[in-house]
Design a protein that fits this description.
The chain is α/β, with parallel strands linked by helices. 36% of the residues lie in helices and 23% in strands.
Amino acid sequence: MRLFAAVCAVLLSGPAGNAQSPLDEKPLAREIFKQLIEINTSNTQGETTPAAEAMAVRFREAGYPDSDIQVLGAAPQKMNVVVRLHGSGAARPVLFVGHLDVVDAKREDWSVDPFEFMERGEYFYGRGALDMKSGDAILVATFIRLKQEGFQPARDMILALTADEEGGLGNGVEWLVRNRRDLIDAEFCVNSDGGGGSIKNGKHLFMGVQETEKIFLTFRLEVTNTGGHSSLPRRDNAIYHLVDGLARLEKLEFPVHLFDVTRAQLERVAPLYPGQLGTDLATVVEHPYDTGALSRLSAIPLYNALLRSTCVPTMLTAGHAENALPQSATAVVNCRMLPVDRAVDVERKLIAVLADPAIKVITTTPARASKYVPMNKKVMAAVSAAIMKYWPGLPVIPEMSAGASDGVYLNRAGIPTYGVSGIFGDEDDVRAHGRDERVLTASFYDAVDFIYDVAVSLGRNL
C-alpha cells in the first residue's frame, strides 16, 4: 500500500492531483455520505458518538495512527472526532470543521425515510443531505485521500467533526476550544457549513465564501394570569395579550444597515440577476433608503435577511386545560442580528414593538458576539484557483450568512473562520432543516474535486 501511494503521489504531481487517478475519492465520498445519513445524529432522537467512532475507524484504516485520531467530547452520546495530518511545521496549522448532528425529522412529514440514504433522479435525499453530512463526507474522503497519497503539507491539517451545532448543551467546537484547544489550534479555519454556490434557473451564478455571519439571539415572551373557569371569560386573557403583541411584532422591520461585507456582496451579485431584481440590488447599494427597491427586496426572505436584523416567533405554548382560562402564554422569538448591531438595541426594539407591560421579555439564548476578520487572502486564492479550474469565469463573492454556525466560537477564540462548502444549490429550493432535504448529485461530486483542490492548496500555501 505504501509503495502504491508513493507511485500515485508522483503521478499526482500537480497541485490538485488528477481527477482520473486511481485515488479519485468520489465513490468513497458517496459511501461515507450514505453511512453518515443512516446514523441518526438528530438532537433529541440520535447521538453523534456512533458517527464520530465510525469516521475514526475509516481514518485508522486509511493509515492514520491512533495518536492522531481523537474521539472525545462533552458527554458520552455527544462525542466529536478530530484527526491530524502532520506537515513540515513551516506554517501554523489549518483547521477544517463540520458538524455531525442534524435537526430532528419526522418520518410522517417526509415522502422518504429521512434516515435512509436515497438517490432519486438528480438528487441524494436524507436528513443532513445539505446540512451538512454531504460536507462531512467530502472532508473525510479528502483527508483519507491525502493520507493515502502520502501528501506532505507545509502545515498540519486538522479535521474536526463535531456535535450539537444545531442546538443542545454539548456543542463540540465550544467544548474543544475550552478543553482541548491544543487539538484544534490553527492559523485559520475552513468551515464547510458556510458558503457554497448559487444556482438560478439551472445556471451556476457564483460561489459564495462566508466572511461573516449573523448572530443568534433568542427571547421568550411570557404572559401570566390568575386564570379561572372558562365559563366566566374575561378580557384580561394571557393569550389575547400575547397574540396582540405578536401581531405588532409581525409588522416590525428593523432599520436597513449595510456594512462593508453586505454592501460588497449586494454590489457584486447585482449584475448577475437580470430585470428588476438586479436593478433593485444595485439601487440599495447606492441609495440604501430607496423605498421602492427596499420594499421589493424586503419581500424576498434572503435579501430581507441581508439588509437588516430580524426577529420571528418560532414556538407557542398556552393554557393548561380546555375548560380553564390560561394562566400563562409563552412564545419563543428567534432573532438573527447583524454582526454590526447590538443585542441591547434589538431587545429594546422588541419591547417597544410589543408595547404591553404584561408581556415579559426574557433572554434565553444570549448573543455570542464576535468580530469578524477580513477575508484571508490564502483562502480566497485557493477558492478562486479551484473555481477557475472547474467553472472558469464564475465570480467568487465574500458574503454574510443569514444563519449561524460554529464559526462564532472559533472567531471568539481567535481562530478566524471562513465558510467554504463547494456545494452548489438552487437558491429557489433550499430544503435544509426542511421536508425531503436533498442535494444535487452532480453538485456533490463536483464539490469532492473542489474541496480536495482547496485543501491541497491551503496545505501548501504559506
